[in-house]
Design goal:
This protein starts with 10 loop residues before the first strand and ends with a strand. The protein has three domains: about 150 residues, Rossmann fold; about 240 residues, pyruvate-formate lyase- activating enzyme, CATH 3.80.30.20; about 55 residues, Nucleic acid-binding proteins (OB fold (Dihydrolipoamide Acetyltransferase, E2P)), CATH 2.40.50. The strands form six sheets. Strands 1, 2, 3, 4, 5, 6 and 7 form a seven-stranded mixed sheet that branches. A five-stranded mixed barrel has the order 18-19-20-22-21. About 35% of the residues lie in helices and about 20% in strands. The longest helix has 26 residues. It is α/β, with parallel strands linked by helices and about 475 residues long. The structure holds 5'-deoxyadenosine and iron/sulfur cluster (SF4).
């Protein structure tokens, strides 16, 4: 397990069905869901300039890498991908076709100039806060300029981004991401995010509601609110009061057509009373919560600057389960943070046993240059990290399997998403994010239907319509 719920692996933006677009853009997305969302918004901005999205890199007039910097060697991965792209560009050039190459996302933000220096093939380097200027950067690049846009923008990028066409939204399916918050002020000592994404910024309520209404009107049924620290979102409400994520969820639940809401990723310190009340009072807020704890040791949590104890986390989970007993928890864990002893690691194993997670993502600590953790004493031996990771993952996998097995025979709702791989099969999404597979058509795409879970697959559930 190397990617998190928050990390999505590598994906391409769905090809555009909108006609009359003359040029093609290929976007490769690394990392978290926010990058997936950003890639779509970049594609939308470029669509307004005549670019259609393609999944065929050889056919693209513009190639964009939307990069992630959370893990070690992230930059190296980008440079080797650029090597491959250089060959594609040369091949296209031999047929008289021009290719503009851009690097976006967190590696672009962190490496900036260095990318320009090391990879002459790159025409554009653009950060996560400035990608509304992408169409302009592409125009300049086509005129022969190399463009570096990594300053934190003073203007609100969302105000400047064109809205996607309803047809483009429809093409992306019945689930959608909606970024409500960006950046992080928490400064966990292992994490690069506060440096790459900058400090916490919340989008205004009216902007978020308008975007959610547009998504719902284009057929989206499930919206996942995104933020590096999504539950730190705060803004002035239409009632003039200070709103937090809880108030926002109550308001979004009123939008006709929105059938399901989720949010990710959150910090334990920002789970306030209204947000917990939203889990109690909003049936459309899915009973699934990604709430990373990272470690079960108070000493390590302190060294990580998480600013809560293991028991604070346990008590918080008790409060959430008290109001929403069926909530399924997902988490992130780091083993081998500097100074982590056997006893500290056992505390992590203990909190996992106490809390139980249906899904979890665990990593060996990797020092990120520029973060305080990298300069700490007593780095843990790689072989010890490996052993601890193996033990932790074995426990987490067992908990995940136990949860899936416990679902067999139970009924659940499923959002019908698309036809399955086998003829006659249909794939939907369970309340717990896991895909559900049915052997018959239980309704139309976008319907939320009741099913009974019949068996579990590796990472999916099989069900029958009720
Ligand atoms: N080493 C290991 N894991 C990390 N994460 C973030 N930074 C590091 C690092 N330096 C993990 C955390 C976070 C998730 C997105 O990635 O668990 O919650
Ligand atoms: Fe990184 Fe911590 Fe901020 Fe999450 S809360 S983005 S782990 S600094």
């Amino acid at each position: 397990m190397t990617e998190t719920a928050w990390m999505s692996g590598e994906t391409a933006v769905a090809p555009d069905s909108v006609q009359a677009l003359t040029k093609k853009v290929f976007v490769k997305t690394y990392g978290c869901q926010m990058n997936v969302y950003d890639s779509q918004r970049m594609a939308d901005a470029l669509a307004a300039d005549g670019y259609a999205s393609t999944t065929d890199i050889g056919d693209a007039d513009l190639v964009l890498l939307n990069t992630c910097h959370i893990r070690e060697r992230a930059a190296e991965k980008v440079y080797s991908e650029l090597g491959r792209i250089r060959a594609i560009k040369a091949e296209r050039a031999s047929h008289g076709r021009e290719t503009v190459i851009g690097v976006a996302g967190c590696v672009a933000q962190a490496e900036g100039e260095e990318i320009m220096r090391r990879a002459p093939v790159v025409d554009i380097v653009i950060g996560p806060q400035t990608y509304h200027r992408l169409p302009d950067a592409v125009r300049k690049a086509r005129a022969g300029e190399r463009v570096l846009e990594t300053d934190y923008a003073l203007e609100d990028k969302f105000e400047h981004l064109p809205q996607p066409k309803p047809a483009a939204v429809k093409n992306r399916g019945v689930t959608a991401f909606l970024t409500v918050q960006e950046g992080c002020d928490k400064f966990c000592t292992f994490c690069v995010v506060p440096y790459t994404r900058g400090s916490e910024v919340s989008r205004p309520v009216a902007q978020i509601i308008a975007e959610a209404e547009r998504l719902a009107a284009s057929g989206v049924r499930e919206i996942t609110l995104l933020g590096q620290n999504v539950n730190a979102w705060r803004a002035e409400g239409p009632d003039g009061r200070a709103w937090g994520l809880g108030e926002l969820l109550f308001r979004l639940a009123e939008i006709p057509g929105v059938g399901r809401l989720r949010y990710t990723t959150s910090h334990p310190r920002d789970m306030n009373d209204t947000l917990i009340a939203a889990h109690r009072d909003l049936p459309i807020l899915m009973p699934y919560l990604h709430l990373p704890v990272q470690s079960g040791s108070d000493g390590i949590l302190k060294a990580m600057n998480r600013r809560h104890t293991a028991d604070d986390y346990r008590r918080l989970i008790d409060r959430i389960r008290h109001v929403r007993p069926d909530i399924a928890l997902s988490g992130d864990f780091i083993v081998g943070f500097p100074g982590e002893t056997d006893a500290d690691f056992e505390d992590t194993m203990r909190i996992v046993r106490d809390v139980t997670f249906v899904q979890a993502y665990s990593f060996k600590y990797s020092p990120r240059p520029g973060t305080p953790g990298a300069d700490m004493a007593f780095h843990v031996d790689e072989t010890i990290k490996d052993e601890r990771l193996q033990r932790l993952q074995a426990l987490l996998v067992r908990q995940q399997q136990d949860f899936q097995t416990s679902l067999v025979g139970r009924s659940a709702d499923m959002l019908i998403e698309r036809p399955g791989r086998e003829p006659g099969q249909w794939v939907g999404r369970s309340p717990w994010l896991m895909p559900v597979i049915l052997d018959e058509k239980p309704g139309e795409i976008g319907d939320i239907v009741d099913v009974r879970i019949t068996r579990t697959g590796t990472n999916s559930l099989h069900a029958e319509a009720l």
